């Protein structure tokens, strides 16, 4: 069976859509490739950011849940999200963040340099210098020489790591290093291929809310491979959802042994299925089954202010 190529997208929870767009599109220079709603709760926005086309491995997405309590960082959660930038780019980004009065610090991990900071709602973010080949969106606000090319990876905080490590091995991840309480796994040489697991048994259980990660989605090349994975995961004793139509990809969801919500999403059909490439993210898009409710949904959604 085909292994997992890496992360498809990471979905987090934010407060207001406007503040989110101002940070991820205007400051970080990612392209807002889709402005839609949470298909399971269409009274809230679902925003997608990525490269020019929102290719798998470049995507960050957000559920906008205004007035929702902040999450609590702990075990059973994604601790931080890392985005990839070209070598010798951290000074550029440190200055760019400082100009917005955002504190950042440079750290080293596995002989790599990273810039660590907080996004809106205190979401933990990192920029990692990487040689992984990725093409940033040329229309973004950042200098193309230093622009974000996509995801680099995520860090999971878990009470114990052994059962999760066994699952990652089955998914095609290779264990490549250990540093203090951190264990590194790599899926491929594509964007979004790094997954770090921190073993933190003394940390309390995390809680989902604003400023926390909701789930991590992994890549399946097509629906046939995704269905094979569903059978495999069920065979390992995991509770897996039926295949769900997300318009831009199909999804299955399950909780890995440490409690983090995982998704396996197909690479296609992609974000140009309902919008031309030149105008991605400019209008509110709804799936076919929600179109009859468009007037009601648009009435209930908050206005977006961000400039």
UniProtKB/TrEMBL annotation:
<protein>
    <submittedName>
        <fullName>Glyoxalase/bleomycin resistance protein/dioxygenase</fullName>
    </submittedName>
</protein>
<keyword id="KW-0223">Dioxygenase</keyword>
<dbReference type="InterPro" id="IPR037523">
    <property type="entry name" value="VOC_core"/>
</dbReference>
<dbReference type="InterPro" id="IPR004360">
    <property type="entry name" value="Glyas_Fos-R_dOase_dom"/>
</dbReference>
<dbReference type="GO" id="GO:0051213">
    <property type="term" value="F:dioxygenase activity"/>
</dbReference>
<keyword id="KW-0560">Oxidoreductase</keyword>
<dbReference type="InterPro" id="IPR029068">
    <property type="entry name" value="Glyas_Bleomycin-R_OHBP_Dase"/>
</dbReference>
<feature type="domain" description="VOC">
    <location>
        <begin position="150"/>
        <end position="267"/>
    </location>
</feature>
<dbReference type="Pfam" id="PF00903">
    <property type="entry name" value="Glyoxalase"/>
</dbReference>
<dbReference type="InterPro" id="IPR052537">
    <property type="entry name" value="Extradiol_RC_dioxygenase"/>
</dbReference>
<feature type="domain" description="VOC">
    <location>
        <begin position="6"/>
        <end position="130"/>
    </location>
</feature>
């Amino acid at each position: 069976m085909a292994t997992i190529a890496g992360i498809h997208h990471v979905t987090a929870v934010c407060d207001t859509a406007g503040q989110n767009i101002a940070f991820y599109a205007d400051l970080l220079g990612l392209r807002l490739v889709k402005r839609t709603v949470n298909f399971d709760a269409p009274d809230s926005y679902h925003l997608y950011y990525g490269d020019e086309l929102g290719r798998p491995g470049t995507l960050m997405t957000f559920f906008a849940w205004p007035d929702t309590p902040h999450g609590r960082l702990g075990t059973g959660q994604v601790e931080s999200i890392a985005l990839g930038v070209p070598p010798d780019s951290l000074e550029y980004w440190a200055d760019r963040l400082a100009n917005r009065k955002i504190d950042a610090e440079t750290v080293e991990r596995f002989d790599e340099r990273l810039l660590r900071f907080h996004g809106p709602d205190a979401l933990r973010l990192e920029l990692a210098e990487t040689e992984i080949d990725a093409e940033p969106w040329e229309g973004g606000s950042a200098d193309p020489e230093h622009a974000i090319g996509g995801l680099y990876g995520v860090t999971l905080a878990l009470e114990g790591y052994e059962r999760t490590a066994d699952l990652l091995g089955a998914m095609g991840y290779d264990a490549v290093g250990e540093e203090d309480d951190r264990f590194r796994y790599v899926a491929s040489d594509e964007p979004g291929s790094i997954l770090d697991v921190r073993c933190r048994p003394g940390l309390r259980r995390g809680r989902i809310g604003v400023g926390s990660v909701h789930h991590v989605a992994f890549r399946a090349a097509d629906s046939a491979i995704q269905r094979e994975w569903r059978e495999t995961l069920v065979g390992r004793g995991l509770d897996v959802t039926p295949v769900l139509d997300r318009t831009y990809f199909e999804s299955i969801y399950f909780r890995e042994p440490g409690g983090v919500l995982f998704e396996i999403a197909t690479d296609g059909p992609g974000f140009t299925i309902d919008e031309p490439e030149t105008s991605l993210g400019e209008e509110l898009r709804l799936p076919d089954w929600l179109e009859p409710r468009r007037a009601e949904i648009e009435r209930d959604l908050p206005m977006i202010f961000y400039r």
